[in-house]
């Protein structure tokens, strides 16, 4: 949807400053469901550390927002959670 499209341009120095302040950058890697790959470049789906009833919670995002908790079957191909909890 064109109405949601927004392009941000950052210099390498801008990225370094954001990372130094704790920013985490996750690509819109899409997902794999069976033999289909969907939403590459449009959405990011990431496993969280929460598991219940043979399902796990995911966080997913699109250009229009973030959905932090969604229960998904563990066999779905989401990206691995690459960040660690802050203690």
Annotate the secondary structure layout:
Layout: H1 12-20, E1 31-33, E2 36-38, E3 44-52, E4 55-62, E5 65-73
Keywords:
87 residues; two-stranded antiparallel sheet; 5 strands; globular
Strand order of the largest sheet: 3-4-5
Count of DSSP strands: 5
Structural class: mainly beta
Classify the helix fraction into a percent range: 10-25%
Our Rg estimate from Cα atoms comes to 15 Å
**N-to-C CA distance:** 39 Å
Number of helices: 1
Summarize the structure.
By secondary structure, the protein is mainly beta. It has one helix at residues 12-20; strands at 31-33, 36-38, 44-52, 55-62, 65-73. The N and C termini lie far apart (39 Å).
Would you kindly provide a written description of the structure presented here, covering whatever features stand out?
With 87 residues, this protein is mainly β. Helices cover 10% and strands 37% of the residues. It is globular, with a radius of gyration of 15 Å.
């Amino acid at each position: 949807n064109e109405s949601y499209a927004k392009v941000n341009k950052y210099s390498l120095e801008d990225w370094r400053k954001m990372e130094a302040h704790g920013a985490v950058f996750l690509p819109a890697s899409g997902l794999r469901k069976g033999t289909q790959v969907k939403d590459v470049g449009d959405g990011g789906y990431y496993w969280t550390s929460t598991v219940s009833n043979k399902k796990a919670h995911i966080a997913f995002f699109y250009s229009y927002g973030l959905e932090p908790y969604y229960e998904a079957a563990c066999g779905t191909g989401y990206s691995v959670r690459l960040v660690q909890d802050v203690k």
